[in-house]
Amino acid sequence: MKVVIAEHAGVCYGVERALRLAGEAAATSDNVHTLGPLIHNPQAVAELKGRGVDVASGLDEIESGTVVIRSHGVDPSIIRAAADKGLEVVDATCPFVGAAHTCAAELTETGYSVVIVGEADHPEVEGIQAHAGGNAVIVQRADELPERLPSRRVGVVVQTTQSAARLEEVVTALLPRVTELRVCNTICSATAKRQRAADELARTVDVMVVVGGHNSGNTTRLAEICREVNERVHHVETSEELSADWFNDTDVVGVTAGASTPDVQIRGVIAAIEAMSSHGA
Q1: Catalytic residue among 124, 147, 240, 241
Q2: Between helices 217-227 and 189-202, what is the axis angle to 10°?
Q3: Active site residue 16
Q4: Are residues 166 and 134 located together in one domain of the fold?
C-alpha cells in the first residue's frame, strides 16, 4: 500500500508565526496567556501549555503578564482593553485575517452593507464582524441570505478558510439583487492551495485521510472537498484514531492536513498507516 501526501498540506505561515510568537513570549515571561486557543489544534495547544502558555477565555481571567492574541484575530476593542489593563499584548493575528479586517472596515466606512461569507460562531468571523461595525450579515451559503438585504450597495468579505465555491455561490446569488457589489476575496492563498491539492489527490487515490483538529474549520473543509470526489475519506486528529479496516482493498492512500496541523502530527499518521500496511492491512 502506497501513501501519497498532497502537494500542499500542513501548517501555513500564519500558524507558524503565531506559534513562534507564543513560544518567544513564553521564553521571556512566566505569565503568558492566549485569548482562546492560539490555533484550532488541541495537540499544539497542549504542547504550548507544557511550555507555560495557558488559555484564557477572557481578559477577566488575566490579571498581569502577557496576553497573546490568537491567529483568528479579535474585536479591536479587546486589544485596547488589554493595553488599558496594563497587559503586554502580542498580536499573533494571521496577516490574511488582518487583511479581512481591513476590507470589512473600509467597506463599512465607504457606505457598503457588508456580507460576510463564513461561520457565525467562528472567532475569526466574530473579529471580522467587529471590524465591520457589528452589523454585517453572516452567511455560509446563498440560501441563508435574508429575503431583504440592508441595502442595494453591498460589499462582501470572506472568512479566510472558506472555499472559493462558497464565495462564488453567494456572490452569484447577490448580483441580481444589488445595484453595486464589491467583493474582497480574502480567502488566504495557503487555504486555496491546500484545497486544490486535496481535491486533485482525492480523485486519484483509494482512500483519503485528512489530518487536523476536529475543531478546525479549514481542516473540516478539506475533508468536505475530498468527500465530493471520493467516498472513502476520514478526518483524524492523531494516528490513534486510525482504523485498519479503512484500508482494506486499498492500493493508494492519500494524506492531506489542515493549515493548523504541525508536521509531527502528519508524520505520525503516515507512519501509522505504513505500519498497518506492513502488517497486511
Answers
A1: 124
A2: 30
A3: no
A4: yes
